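Hi R.,

Here's the chain you asked about this morning:
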Amino acid sequence: MPKSQTTRNVPQLANIENVAIAHCAIIMVGLPARGKTYMAKKLARYLNWIGIETKVFNVGEYRRRAATNYKSIAEFFDPNNHEALAIRDKCATDALEDMCQWLEKSGEVGVYDATNARRSSRKKIRDYLLEHNFKTFFVESYCQDSSIVEANIREVKISSPDYENMDRDKAIEDFKNRIKHYEIDYETLDETLDRELSYIKIIDQGERYLVNKVQGHIESRVVYYLMNIHVLPRTIYLTRHGESDMNLCGRIGGDGDLSANGRKFAEALTRYVESENIPHLRVWTSLMKRTIQTAAGITAVKEHWKALNEIDAGVCEGMTYEEIHERYPEEFALRDADKYHYRYPGGESYQDLVARLEPVIMELERQENVMVVCHQAVGRCLLAYFLDKEQENLPYLEVPLHTIIKLTPVAYGCKVEFIPLNIKAVNTHRPRPPSISLDRTAMEALATIPAHE
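And the predicted structure, written out as tokens:
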């Protein structure tokens, strides 16, 4: 194997639904413009993706609804403004109570997103949560690098709803004054004073970490994730392999070769990469021939991941949907009834696939520019992570052949762009069928099967 190519065979993490989850509250800590909300939203997206029901409770959103009369946001955060202080305290309390109610009803992890600047206020929050029998874990973003803070203010904060229709320079000045108000009372997490707390302190956006008393599965998962993410500008390119001979026949799985049009797509993909001149690009494929053939012409460091192999269809590997329905009609209906959790006999479910892909996501979060040449089910799982899609909808996301999906992380989400390379290919997408009943007719069961040879 050439030096520029490596094979990745990573261990599979435990299936999250086989782990007992203790209800947990994650408390964000940090001055404004330190990336707390970015981390909170990203963390919630990750935990939901692996099957832990998570929700962010952002105190700022409560405050915006409660305080519409203040033209200067900095004035609202002046510690001498007693009227505003009362509003802020009520908003913080309302968000905390709402989070507890949600956790008591159905939630597993609540993320309390606020500055939580004072040690005394953090103690009150922790005591309140302990009274409700919720575990607490603190996440502080501590940053003294003025260039990072300045960039965050200019790129994220002044475009927030607080500064809508305000002059840019005035907005920047107002936000900096707001930070100064918080700095008066701010108390960072301390190794000695806070030694009884469970927490991670992220210093200067990941230059250093301080981790204390991590106890339990959730905290371990959170620490593992937060120590892998970064905020550097980068782009992720998702694309399926070129059309294969098995795609032409409507057969699922297998390890087929590219069709004539699939080979044309491989050539077009190579030209696209050359024209984009993407710095430090890495190309990842599965171990299957059709992805390796698709990426063969691209000049870049390549890695081949077993974790990127297509979903294992077990006894149904290499069959058409019509053949599966004829031979295993009950299995065919059961899969339509719950496509995310259904596991092929001797094979995998989408839920299994998400667990298999978690190490891929962790490594993607650590990288700069990456092109992932993968398969339909794998592409759906990766796309669902970046676009924060629910489990129910994940198996029906459209990931068409001969199309590049360009993902660019932005402030609180991900910008997505579909780029077709205009090479003819069959359609392999099967929408939800009109009926999922076990006693449905064959016509109803096969109604959404894509056309094939």
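The first strand starts at residue 5 and ends at 8.

Let me know if you need anything else.
M.
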